[in-house]
Amino acid sequence: MRLSEHFEMSELECRCCGQCHMDPTLMDKLELLRSLAGGLPLHVNSGYRCPVHNAEVGGSPRSAHLRGLAVDIAVPSGGRMHQLLGAAFAAGFPRIEQGNNYLHVDIDDTLPCPCSWINPLGCRESNAGIE
Ligand SMILES: [Zn+2]
Ligand SMILES: [Zn+2]
């Protein structure tokens, strides 16, 4: 099942249980980001997370992933971080985290925003306890 023009539910559902409650506004912004970054495919590491999976990957207890308001995009080293960051700002994401191999974007206005930060220790799909 397709959640938006370029993203399948299988890409965004919880990795442990398949639940998927992505916010439609978030999906619109993700499409905008994709388009502003040149329209190339994006690899999603993490979209919706249930509380169990969020804890497993070391997400913050208040993580926007729990509410379907965040996405982590894989950005391999040597990849397009600069371009994707620019597109994330241009798309109007109010919260942006640059990890060493991923970009977290979220629209959760119950968390501090606008806000952008760097997480050099972030790994895998987690946010290393930040958000
Ligand atoms: Zn789950
Ligand atoms: Zn994230």
Features:
131 residues; alpha+beta; Muramoyl-pentapeptide Carboxypeptidase, domain 2; 5-stranded mixed β-sheet; two-stranded antiparallel ribbon; 4 helices; 7 strands; 25% helix; 21% strand; globular; disordered C terminus; binds zinc ion
Order of helices and strands: EEHHEHEHEEE
Task: Indicate the mean pLDDT.
Answer: 92
Kindly report how far apart the N and C termini lie: 28 Å
* Strand portion: 15-25%
* Count of runs of 4 or more consecutive helical residues: 4
Query: Which CATH-level-2 architecture?
Result: 2-Layer Sandwich
SSE order and pairing:
Layout: E1 2-4, E2 7-8, H1 9-12, H2 24-36, E3 44-46, H3 51-56, E4 70-74, H4 81-90, E5 95-99, E6 102-106, E7 115-119
Parallel strand pairs: 5-7
Antiparallel strand pairs: 1-2, 3-4, 4-6, 5-6
Helix pairs in contact: 2-4
The structure holds zinc ion (ZN) (2 copies).
